[in-house]
Design brief:
305 residues; alpha+beta; Jelly Rolls; Arc Repressor Mutant, subunit A
Amino acid sequence: MEDIAFHNISISRLKEHFPGSQWAGIGDDFCIFDATYNKKLKVLEYPCRFDGYLALFCVKGNIRITVNLNEFEMKDNTMFLCVPGNIVRITQVMSACPVEDMHYIGVAMTKEFVQGLRIDINKLFSEGMSFIDSPCVPLSAHEAELVTRYVALLGDVVTSDLVYKRDAVHSLLSSVFYVMAGVVTKHTSELKKMSAVPSSRSKMIFEQFIKLVSEYHTQQRMVGFYADKLCLTPKYLSKLIRNATGRSAPEWIDAYVILEAKNMLKYSNATIKEIVFRLNFPNQSVFYKFFKARTGMTPTEYRNS
């Protein structure tokens, strides 16, 4: 039976979304690319997961991008950061500039490649890289120039015949991660000054919760499961999640399940029976009631719409 979960995008499959772009890389673990407009450009038009780390810098253009059910705008001098497990889709290409002027620079790497870098990735994330709230980060002119120079240098090293090329790329990327961490930390600090934010504990628990939901939503839909994983009571977890987001924990879990179900109904040939099994529902009747209560349509109606 075919894989009926979200399309998982590897680096090799990512290239299919940017036909005609210039690519350079090291095996299947790391690549950089320079993408301009192409009429065959697919640009993540369907919901998918990139099972690695992806940084996309918008030199020129304007698009709307959905990350884990939240929509963001990416425009000139904006950096988009995607971590493993995120569900991503480009929902709209805007007309702020002629599409022929669209220009993006990207860096993609596998989890295994990142593990080989000389950085503490968890420390960086906890100290400011809040990809759930701010995956699209506007850059100042100086920051944009700095990113462009770093990527250009990476490209020069990757396409060279240096004996220690892989080690040189590792060192450069370690530096890039700390630069990005500094940019994102500065950006999130400015946002906090401009508006009220939830408590740091609520925020931390929400980020841990949403990572678990992303991983387990096809298997577990009960709040108690996630509360146990976080060593909290279901009631206290629900309170923290609502405080951080304004939405309840069950709403977040259901939203992920519905998004997964919609993707399978629209973008796979899986039967309803196969989808029910994949999403761990006891039978088709329960799945139909669950889906219709949250979408106003039966799965069959949605598939045919």
